[in-house]
Design brief:
D-Maltodextrin-Binding Protein, domain 2, 14 strands, about 25% strand, globular, binds glutamine
């Protein structure tokens, strides 16, 4: 049996996909640390519940399976709360409002409305809300394990556009002056932390920590620290 401070119940294992800046990304002095807005939030949740935080980096597409098989206790991955996902996991109260955005090459002036997206070749992140939405416009959707790879495909001229979450898209645009944001108004999406439906105790703790962070100013401090 495990003893001391490493007993399973003393550790909060959080799964993420650390390719979604500024919510989660690889960085730090050593260049191999997982950092970001979501990571700071789960650090606080671990502290509030007296647990040691362990962050596991995995494919976005495998997070829900990992949660439901008990490999991880929580998902913190800028994950949008959707009815389909709510069928298999329990989401916290929403903690961030986002939207999908369209990114193209800078010289592309063909996109003025959502109708102009029909028949275009999209690059997306596998299993993301962008992936699901892209399929409503076209059958030409190439899905990658990270948004970064989708952006690369666009940069290399292999696809017409990328459909991705607003804040990570802004992050990529800053580093890629040859790409641009197309102004289209999609519905808002709300990010939630996800836990197993069998863990209502943890869900309560998560929502209590989120509430406290919102009322004591630390949530706003994180927004200032991470958002453009
Ligand atoms: N918010 C999007 C989703 O839930 C993308 C999240 C991500 O790529 N990490 O599908």
């Amino acid at each position: 049996a495990l003893t001391g401070c490493n007993k399973k119940e003393d550790v909060l294992v959080v799964g993420t996909n650390a390719a979604f800046p500024p919510f989660e990304y690889i960085g730090g002095a050593s260049g191999d640390e997982i950092k970001g807005f979501d990571i700071d939030i789960v650090k606080q949740i671990a502290e509030d519940s007296g647990k040691t935080l362990k962050v596991e980096n995995m494919k976005f597409d495998s997070l829900i399976v990992a949660l439901n098989s008990g490999k991880i206790d929580m998902i913190a991955a800028g994950m949008t709360i959707t009815p389909e996902r709510q069928a298999s996991v329990a989401f916290s109260d929403p903690y961030y409002e986002a939207t999908q955005v369209v990114i193209t090459q800078k010289q592309d002036d063909q996109i003025h409305s959502v109708d102009d997206l029909k028949g275009k070749h999209f690059a997306v992140q596998l299993g993301s809300t962008g992936d699901i939405m892209a399929k409503t416009f076209t059958e030409q959707v190439t899905a990658f394990n990270t948004g970064f790879e989708a952006m690369m495909e666009l940069k290399n001229g292999k696809v017409d556009l990328v459909l991705f979450d607003s804040e990570p898209a802004a992050n990529h645009l800053q580093k890629n002056p040859n790409l641009k944001l197309q102004k289209l108004n999609f519905d808002p999406e709300y990010y939630g932390l996800a836990v197993s439906k069998d863990n209502p105790e943890l869900l309560k703790q998560v929502n209590a920590s989120l509430d406290a962070m919102k009322s004591n100013g630390s949530y706003d401090a994180l927004i200032t620290k991470y958002m453009k």
